[in-house]
Design goal:
The complex is a heterodimer. By secondary structure, chain A is mainly alpha-helical. Chain A has two domains: 84 residues, RNA polymerase sigma factor, region 2, helix turn helix motif (Rna Polymerase Sigma Factor, Chain: A); 86 residues, Orthogonal Bundle (Arc Repressor Mutant, subunit A). Chain A has nine helices and no strands. The longest helix of chain A has 23 residues. Chain A is elongated and about 60 Å long. Chain B is of the alpha+beta class. Chain B has one domain. In chain B, the strands form two sheets. Chain B has an eight-stranded antiparallel β-sheet with strand order 3-4-5-6-13-12-9-8, covered by helices on one side. Chain B has a five-stranded mixed β-sheet with strand order 1-2-7-10-11, sandwiched between helices. In chain B, a hairpin with a 2-residue loop joins strand 8 and strand 9. Classes of the chains: A mainly alpha, B alpha+beta. The interface between A and B is large, with 61 and 48 residues.
Chain lengths: 185, 231
């Protein structure tokens, strides 16, 4: 049995039109692509559509993908554009679908009941504050913290300069703090 | 990381995302069926219904075909060769809303490039939200001297070219694209199914992130000089 192909090898094959190789790449990144699109659109159907269209576009654009570049942010950038287009076309702003999930604390060591309630309340409060942000601020927060992309990946995904990511994050965090303080009153 | 940043990270892990659909299968089916991305196909179908036929003669010649296909996508701009340009009922100058530069910088999803050429006045700045396009207009809407448009969305703009338009490949530093000259072409916005206006000479280039259109009634070298001045 041969060794599994590396990502770079899969990319080179896909560039030459190998759809099986590209299928492996899609499989590797479909989860993060779908989650990204979902956070931007707030709608599972739109997210699926955006991610699928993004992967198809990416296949036809592979010739422009620079050898040695990071594939994940490049793919996410295309998917993000698709998601944003759908958000614009729908004329609505996708609410982060946090309400139900955010009220459920994460697993791990069982926290005390009091702590669970506090965590859940904080999640709901934070989700509400996030939903109140402008799209450009919420997008950068979603990429950087919710999806845990690096600053470089966030910049690439959102087609922003790294400095812009930093400043936008800073503003977004300040706005979140303001909103959280207001809610605390 | 601050407490708030940690809380956001934890929140991201708490989210109950819908189950990821089988994108691999769906994408592979699209590729096997040869179904191109919709933003490429949809306007073409619409355009065909109106007036358009892809120039079969060009596509029949392997070398020409490969060259044409290379130009089908320049960043946010898709190019279609047509037999005959569609007739426009009225020319639209649809750059979007005029906004202060600071607002355009805030609303755009990318860093706006400005020309540093000496002698250029401050441009009028427009932002078109449906395709996320920022335009810098030098001169007036009635008598534009130079128009620089910047955008990042794939498939945002289509150009319909007749065979009278020369398409010359261009590569300049990080930029690659084409200089379109010699014949007018039509701008088409797929997102609005909207034919916009006739356009003369234009330089269309893109780098890894941004597509730039430089529309100006000068030579290619002058257009490239403007491109090099963008920062």
């Amino acid at each position: 049995m041969g060794r599994p192909l590396t990502e770079a090898e899969l990319i080179e094959r896909a560039k030459r039109g190998d759809q099986d190789a590209y299928g492996e790449l899609v499989h590797a990144y479909q989860g993060i692509a779908f989650r990204t699109a979902y956070l931007l659109t707030g709608n599972a159907a739109d997210a699926e559509d955006a991610a699928q269209e993004g992967f198809v576009k990416a296949f036809y654009a592979l010739g422009r993908f620079r050898r040695g570049a990071e594939l994940r942010p490049w793919l996410l950038r295309i998917v993000t554009n698709e998601a944003r287009n759908r958000r614009r076309s729908a004329g609505r702003r996708g609410k982060l679908a946090l309400r139900a999930a955010a009220a459920v604390p994460s697993g791990g060591a069982a926290p005390s009941p009091e702590l669970s309630v506090l965590d859940a309340e904080r999640n709901v409060q934070l989700a509400a504050a996030l939903n109140g942000l402008r799209d450009e601020e919420r997008d950068v927060v979603a990429c950087r913290y919710l999806l845990e992309l690096s600053e470089d990946e966030t910049a690439e995904t959102l087609r922003l300069r790294k400095g812009t990511v930093k400043s936008r994050l800073s503003r977004a965090l300040a706005h979140l703090r303001e909103r959280m303080e207001v809610d605390d009153v | 990381m601050s407490e708030l940043e940690l809380a956001l990270t934890r929140l991201g892990r708490e989210l109950d995302y819908p189950e990821t659909p089988d994108l691999t299968g769906a994408v592979r089916r699209r590729l096997v069926e040869g179904r191109r991305p919709r933003s490429w196909r949809r306007p073409l179908v619409i355009a065909l219904a109106a007036v358009l036929v892809v120039v079969a003669a060009v596509m029949a010649v392997p070398q020409a075909r490969s060259e044409v296909l290379d130009w089908f996508g320049i960043g946010s701009v898709t190019i279609h060769y047509v037999d005959e340009l569609p007739k426009l009922e009225g020319e639209e100058f649809e750059l979007g809303a005029r906004v202060p530069l600071a607002e355009a910088r805030d609303r755009a999803q990318f860093a706006i490039l400005m020309s540093t050429l000496e002698g250029l006045e401050h441009p009028k700045v427009y932002y078109r939200g449906d395709i996320g396009m920022v335009s810098l207009l030098y001169g007036t809407e009635e008598e534009p001297r130079l128009l620089i448009s910047e955008l990042v969305s794939p498939g945002a703009i289509d150009k319909l070219l007749s065979s009278q338009t020369d398409v010359e490949p261009v590569r300049e530093d990080e930029w690659s694209g084409a200089w379109l000259s010699g014949g007018q072409h039509v701008l088409f916005l797929p997102v609005q199914d909207q034919l916009l206006r006739l356009v003369g000479n234009v330089l269309v280039v893109h780098n890894s992130s941004t597509t730039v259109r430089i529309e100006v009634d000068v030579s290619k070298d002058e257009a490239l000089r403007i491109l090099r001045s963008l920062e």
